[in-house]
Amino acid sequence: MMELIIEFAYTGSVNVTESNARRLFMAADYLNIVELVQICCNFFEKTLCPDNCISIWQFTKTYHTPELHLKAFHYVLSHFEEVVFSEEFLQLSAQDVSDIISSDDLNVRQEAAVFEAIIRWITHDPQEREGYADLLLPKVRLSMMPTEYIQSHVLSNKLVTDNLRCQAMVSEVIECIDRILGRPRLPSAILLAIGGWSSSMDLTNVIEAFDVRANHWMNITNLSEVPRAYHGAAYLGGYVYCVGGIDQVFKPTNSVRRFDLSAQTWQEVAPMHYRRGYVSVTVLNWCIYAMGGYDGRTHLSSAEFYQPETNQWLQIAPMHEQRSDASCTALNGKIYICGGYDGNERLQTAECYNQETNQWTLISPMSSQRSGLGVIAYNNHVYAVGGSDGTGCLQTAEVYNPHTNTWHNVSSMMTPRCSFGIEVVEDRLFVVGGFSRFNATSNVEYYDTEKNEWSQACDMDVSRHALSCCVLSGLPNMA
């Protein structure tokens, strides 16, 4: 270690590896070589994984590295369902397990994962650890579990049946489960539904946020924001961007505004080269792409992208088709845009953009004509959902495989809809609002690719169509 430190003193560089990182950190800390301590911390942060995050968290308790300590702990919370299967998890103290599973930030899709983690930890050393059931089981948010799971897995577990206090606690939850307002874990991501036409045919600036863990919408409208519809929304670098659309005088606009999530303020950024109502928007490689749309006279084939660091829009190659009211997504470094309206008919065609060559390529057409559809990357495929074929709203959905250049049908939505929001949150595909049959709807449903089925989620408070959605994650102020 001294050799490495002396080498660092002369050259300003050091070769940090997994085998020497901790000893080097300890030596640098002992000798108060701040820059080398930081180099080691950066190395630990880059190499965080489910198999080592707990030991890094524990290791940094002994040394004054609060930033790394916090990042390691957040990594444990964020990747909990993988971390519990590591050897390190089994070596934790009861208090450490308690600190982890008590956190609102613990990222678990089902609360059952917390119960099963406790069982795994205790059964690793039952003689020493069974006495900690009293400490740990009350930290499981039983009221967030299905009653059937509690009865079939929790009540029948030996740790519960052998512990009168735990038995009483579980029984009380089952008796009161309809009345208990459980405190859900914080979600890892939040779905925003922005703007649109309300059911009273008014342009709206309503923003609602969906907490997938609580299955609950909250109105977070900022009254200073202008209403818009048929726009695009994107989340990038801590900002929510609203791109183009129809403005309050009912004309297509090229304006772009962004919402600063920490300051909670809106600001105007550089406008697009073209006015684009009915625009298609996605994010690729830290840039926002806007394609097609309607400028008030023409259905557009042009496309452009925005670089936040330069506050500039740059044009790219035009698409093969004029497309307004289409939808797009990014997958594996490419952009896919499907359907839309060219001024004469609803389109069945789809095409793909390669950023490296600045070229669009037509891909296999969908099985249906679709405008006002939703397109999203999900499970390494491109999904095209709903829309209108010119005779009415569709409830069908189809999926594109980029490797075989083929489409195939999947289960249809429960509700036909067009001009709706679409996003993927916590491995489920959500469709939000839209126009259905005769009016705007507040209905929300989600698709599970493993089950190939749609299920109802909580409705929005406001019925609307021509809205746009985006997903926020990694927010420091999620609570």
From TrEMBL:
The lineage of its organism: Eukaryota, Metazoa, Chordata, Craniata, Vertebrata. Gene3D superfamilies: 1.25.40.420, Kelch-type beta propeller, Potassium Channel Kv1.1, Chain A. The keyword Repeat applies. Residues 53-155 form the BACK domain. The gene is LOC114430587. It holds the Pfam family BTB. This is Kelch-like protein 10. Keywords: Kelch repeat, Repeat.
